[in-house]
């Protein structure tokens, strides 16, 4: 006879338990699922990417309405269980009661809110669920919004990074001496702090919060030392506590959490519990990997099978893009412990292994975490490492000092090495699934093993296991569609626009079967660029398919004002231009004039309605737009070269000015920055630009594909030109090749990674006729697009863009 199972809580732990239950015996129970949130199971690990804008809520849903319906689950979302009647085996809500034969409590955890004065003000919130994220996003959209995050642990830092990516000014307050002190030692904490501060997040450690200030709504946070941080929202992420109230009221045994045995049974044999609300052997777990192990045990217990929850060693990773962090085991200092430390200051890499009796008991890695799974496997196995101690820190692929080969490292991992920590999936299981099931894609491996289905941090490792296992038969996964409006990739779209001679957006939408009537915010800017680059004679730029900065030809700032950057050819200016800039700054009450990294002057804080008049004044002095806002040429940075410098070998300043005057105004897939250094001393920093020229006595060394932002990358040598004219031709041809072939929003280094530098050299260096054709197409495009947008707007073009909304409303009323 089918029994009745009631589940309280639709989180990740109970969702995984139901999956195991239905896979083993879909008819064993009639399931009723209660959840306090008005929605079903979603991947809470992915709330941080939702907050930052990297994912949508729909992308992190793990069980949708169809899944619940297909498994005959009665869902009671948005309905709280108020009481458990153990004698009658019923749960009660405001709408009635529901009987059970077995009850699974999966109420999770609740955020700990310290008893700070002001914690109940509007705008003070925890960070636990989708509703919290939505509340943050409501404030993050306001110009100049400021956030204070109390707590420098995993959740607090992920919240801070997400809010910063949304444009907020963010301060993190942490009571301890370094961030994530439970997972990191001070050295790794220092590197993490530097990374976050580079992203514009202010970190205040050893911060004792005194009071949250405000009347009805939060206004600031005051510390014990007198420091005050203004705030529009305060996110409290100082820890979680098991949510045990409904179990405690029912008389179930409670310690820190709901006490369970190895089979996940509570003190009532008819009631089981799972997840962050439970305590097993004195331990409460807050990471997803042990909770998924608990889910397997719960499913087997519900089916009357023997099962035992055995905790495993856990590893920690941070879900902040660009912060590579890994820690596992016990890394505290002690008299009976040794440590091996590797530091690479230039690369920001730090690795530390803690040993006891020739066994690794802890590992901390920052900046390069590729070998994390290998070290975690050795920690779990308690393997004697004395034989390889001298090379241990370099990982599994070390061989005579050679650079590690990622594929060799994966091949060297034993079968019991854990690949997916969240779901406890080892390398051997993945390999068996691939070979036994004929799997060939990442999605197939995910469906079969669940590896990489939770936080996603191990996706690259899973793909590498797939590649090593399949060998030559491995096929790189197809690129994802450019957006939900089409099944085409960016590359397919570019090819079809040319092949079918599609010269307008409606033509693309109609001929290529767009799923929406007129595209979306994601595909329209890309499509606008592709049409503009491929059909300069036929296509008219669509301003409404551009971002705000490109529509108004100025950079919007966090307070809603704008930044104006006049172009200074090669970083060179004149007294007259400087006077014009100073006059404009005074006339329009510019609060800051700043020298930029690209050798220009930036007028910051300009009101939108003042832009056309300021541009007119600057135009009158001969200044044009510096395009500091555009997907196009930004700057050509130069040193003084042979004119003044005793080390200069060529006229770097003059060549830089020639390049800038040739290239300005051209639209490109992403911003492009150039530099020309007059000698190998490289004062213009040419070796980290999209295109960099270093002058020597023999000519001009041209490098491409550098980067100095979130990714730091030196240029790769393209060729050496003997004359300035040849260097000019090669640079122009490279830019045009980039324009015609790159994916929208790919910087040159990303594009080169995809097509290969040899392919670029063949077309720009080796094929002289092809190079000339590229230059001709670029120059033709410039006859159309090399115009100063400031001058046109100063004459009244698109004047509606620069009128305050209130004025437009009044005019309409009149």
What would you say this structure looks like, in words?
The chain is 33% helix and 21% strand. Mean pLDDT is 88; it is low at 399-404 and 805-814. It is α/β, with parallel strands linked by helices and 814 residues long. The protein contains 27 helices and 38 strands. A hairpin with a 5-residue loop joins strand 28 and strand 29 (562-564). The longest helix is centred in the C-terminal third of the chain and has 18 residues, at 724-741.
Supply the number of helical segments: 27
Number of strands: 38
Q: Low-confidence stretches at least 5 residues in length (pLDDT < 50)? A: 399-404, 805-814
Q: In percent terms, what proportion of residues is strand?
A: 15-25%
Overall 3D shape: globular
The share of residues in helices is 25-40%
Report, as a whole number of angstroms, the end-to-end distance. Answer: 76 Å
Compute the CA-based radius of gyration: 30 Å
Mean pLDDT: 88
SS class: alpha/beta
Q: Mind describing the biggest β-sheet?
A: 5 strands, parallel
Biggest β-sheet: strands ordered side by side in the sheet: 3-2-1-7-19
Indicate the topology.
Layout (H helix, E strand, L loop, with lengths): L2 E6 L3 H13 L4 E7 L11 H6 L4 H4 L4 H6 L3 E4 L5 E3 L4 E4 L2 E4 L2 E4 L3 E3 L12 E3 L3 H11 L5 E5 L3 H12 L3 E6 L11 H13 L2 E5 L3 E6 L3 E6 L4 E3 L2 E4 L3 E3 L2 H5 L8 E3 L10 E3 L4 E3 L7 H15 L12 E2 L8 E5 L8 E7 L4 E8 L2 E8 L5 H10 L24 H7 L5 E3 L4 E2 H11 L4 H8 L9 H12 L19 H10 L5 H7 L11 H12 L13 H5 L2 E2 L5 E3 L10 H13 L4 E4 L5 E6 L4 H10 L12 E6 L13 H12 L8 E6 L13 E6 L2 E6 L2 E2 L3 E2 L2 E6 L2 H18 L6 H8 L1 H10 L1 H18 L3 H6 L10 H9 L1
Parallel strand pairs: 1-2, 1-7, 2-3, 7-19, 9-16, 10-11, 10-16, 11-12, 18-20, 32-33, 33-34
Antiparallel strand pairs: 4-5, 5-6, 8-17, 13-14, 14-15, 21-22, 22-25, 23-24, 24-25, 26-27, 28-29, 29-31, 30-31, 34-35, 35-38, 36-37
């Amino acid at each position: 006879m089918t029994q009745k199972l009631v589940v309280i809580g639709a989180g990740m732990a109970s969702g995984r338990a139901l999956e195991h239950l239905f896979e083993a015996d879909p008819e064993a129970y009639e399931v009723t699922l209660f959840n306090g949130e008005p929605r079903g199971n979603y991947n809470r690990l992915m709330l941080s990417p939702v907050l930052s804008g990297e994912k949508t809520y729909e992308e992190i849903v793990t069980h949708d309405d169809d899944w619940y319906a297909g498994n005959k689950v009665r869902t009671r979302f948005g309905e709280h269980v108020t009481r458990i009647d153990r004698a009658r085996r019923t749960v009660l809500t405001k709408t009635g009661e529901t009987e059970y034969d077995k009850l699974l409590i999966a109420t999770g955890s609740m955020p700990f809110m310290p008893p700070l004065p002001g914690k109940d003000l509007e705008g003070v919130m925890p960070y636990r669920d989708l509703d919290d994220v939505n509340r943050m996003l409501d404030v993050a959209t306001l110009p100049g919004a400021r956030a204070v995050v109390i707590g420098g642990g995993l959740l607090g830092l992920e919240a801070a990074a997400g809010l910063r990516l949304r444009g907020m000014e963010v301060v993190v307050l942490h009571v301890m001496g370094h961030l994530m002190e439970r997972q990191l030692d001070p050295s790794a904490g220092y590197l993490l702090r530097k990374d976050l501060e580079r992203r514009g997040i202010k970190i205040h450690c050893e911060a004792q919060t005194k009071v949250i200030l405000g009347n009805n709504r939060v206004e600031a946070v005051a510390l014990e030392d007198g420091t005050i941080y203004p705030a529009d929202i305060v996110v409290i992420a100082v820890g979680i506590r098991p949510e045990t109230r409904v179990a405690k009221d029912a008389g179930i045994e409670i310690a820190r959490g709901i006490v369970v045995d190895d089979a996940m049974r509570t003190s009532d044999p008819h009631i089981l519990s799972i997840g962050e609300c439970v305590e097993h052997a004195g331990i409460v777990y807050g990471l997803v990997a042990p909770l998924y192990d608990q889910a397997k045990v719960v499913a087997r217990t519900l089916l009357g099978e023997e099962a035992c929850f055995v905790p495993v060693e856990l590893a920690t990773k941070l879900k902040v893009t660009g912060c590579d962090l890994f820690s596992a085991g016990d890394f505290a200092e002690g008299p009976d412990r040794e440590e091996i430390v590797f530091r690479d200051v230039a690369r920001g890499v730090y690795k530390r292994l803690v040993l006891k009796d020739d066994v690794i008991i802890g590992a901390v890695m920052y900046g390069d975490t590729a070998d994390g799974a290998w070290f975690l496997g050795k920690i779990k196995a308690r393997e004697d490492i004395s034989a390889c101690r001298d090379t241990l820190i370099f990982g599994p692929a070390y061989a005579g000092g050679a650079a590690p080969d990622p594929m060799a490292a994966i091949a060297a991992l034993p079968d019991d090495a854990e690949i997916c920590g969240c779901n406890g999936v080892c390398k051997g299981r993945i390999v068996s699934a691939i070979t036994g099931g004929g799997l060939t894609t990442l999605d197939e491996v995910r469906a079969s093993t669940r590896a990489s289905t939770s936080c996603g941090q191990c996706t690259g490792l899973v793909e590498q296991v797939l590649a090593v296992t399949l060998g030559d038969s491995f096929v790189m996964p197809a690129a994802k569609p450019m957006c939900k409006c089409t099944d085409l990739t960016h590359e397919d779209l570019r090819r079809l626009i040319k092949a079918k001679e599609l010269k307008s957006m409606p033509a693309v939408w109609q001929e290529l079967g767009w799923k929406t009537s007129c595209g979306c915010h994601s595909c329209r800017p890309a499509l606008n660029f592709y049409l503009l680059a491929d059909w300069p004679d036929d296509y008219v730029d669509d301003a409404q398919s551009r971002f705000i900065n490109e529509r108004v030809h100025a950079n919007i700032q966090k307070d809603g004002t704008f930044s104006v950057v006049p172009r200074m050819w090669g970083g060179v200016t004149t007294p007259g231009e400087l006077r014009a800039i100073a006059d404009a700054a005074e006339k329009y009450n510019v609060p800051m004039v700043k020298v930029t990294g690209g050798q220009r002057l930036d007028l910051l804080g300009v009101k939108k309605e003042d832009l056309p008049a300021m541009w007119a004044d600057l135009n009158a002095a001969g200044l044009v737009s510096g395009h500091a806002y555009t997907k196009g040429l930004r700057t050509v940075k130069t040193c003084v070269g042979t004119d003044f410098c005793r080390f200069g070998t060529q006229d770097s300043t003059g060549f830089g000015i020639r390049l800038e005057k040739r290239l300005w105004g051209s639209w490109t897939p992403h911003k492009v920055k150039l530099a020309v250094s007059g000698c190998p001393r490289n004062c213009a920093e040419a070796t980290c630009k999209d295109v960099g020229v270093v002058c020597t006595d023999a000519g001009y060394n041209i490098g491409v594909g550098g980067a100095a932002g979130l990714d730091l990358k030196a240029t790769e040598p393209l060729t050496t030109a003997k004359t300035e004219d040849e260097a000019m031709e090669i640079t122009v041809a490279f830019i045009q090749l980039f324009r015609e072939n790159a994916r929208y929003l790919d910087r040159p280094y990303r594009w080169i990674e995809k097509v290969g530098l040899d392919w670029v050299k063949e077309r720009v260096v080796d094929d002289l006729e092809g190079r000339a054709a590229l230059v001709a197409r670029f120059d033709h495009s410039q006859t159309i697009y090399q115009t100063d947008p400031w001058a046109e707007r100063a004459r009244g073009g698109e004047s509606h863009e620069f009128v305050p909304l209130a004025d437009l409303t009044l005019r309409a009323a009149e």
